[in-house]
Amino acid sequence: METIKSSKEAYLYLEKGEVLISSGQLILFMKEKQVYLKAPQWTAKVSQEGFLELFKTHSFILYEKKEESYSSLKDEEYYQWRSHYL
């Protein structure tokens, strides 16, 4: 996981469409030039200036989505096992 130490650098990642997690466990993403802040019970949006001011002392983690890979070998093993025992 990549750690981002400044709000200016974080904003550049947001502009590229990346999703960040703040040190306060907020999920941050950008849509239509507004930064959205998402928590379990609420969502808010702030401008660029508001984001840079509010988060100037925070650090962030770059969210990396894990993609599940499809394995035909695993499927084949499963169906061989299943047909043998069922």
Written description of the protein model:
- Helix content is 35%, strand content 26%.
- It has 3 helices and 6 strands, in the order E-H-E-E-E-E-H-E-H.
- It has helices at 7-15, 48-54, 72-85; strands spanning 3-4, 20-22, 27-31, 34-38, 43-46, 60-62.
- It has a 6-stranded antiparallel sheet.
- A hairpin with a 2-residue loop joins strand 3 (27-31) and strand 4.
- It is elongated and about 65 Å long.
Largest sheet: 6 strands, antiparallel
User: What Rg do the Cα atoms give?
Assistant: 20 Å
What is the number of strand segments?
6
How far from one another are the termini?
Answer: 43 Å
State the helix count: 3
Q: Spatial order of the strands in the main sheet?
A: 1-6-2-3-4-5
Q: Element order, helices and strands?
A: EHEEEEHEH
The protein's oligomeric status is: single chain
The level of helicity is: 25-40%
Q: What is the SS-derived class?
A: alpha+beta
* Portion in beta strands: 25-35%
Residue-averaged pLDDT? 87
Shape: elongated
Uncertain residue segments: none
Annotation keywords:
about 35% helix; alpha+beta; single chain; six-stranded antiparallel sheet; 6 strands; about 90 residues
Short description:
This protein has 86 residues and is α+β, with helices and mostly antiparallel strands. The chain is built from three helices and six strands, in the order βαββββαβα.
Helices, strands, pairings?
Elements lengths: L2 E2 L2 H9 L4 E3 L4 E5 L2 E5 L4 E4 L1 H7 L5 E3 L9 H14 L1
Antiparallel strand pairs: 1-6, 2-3, 2-6, 3-4, 4-5
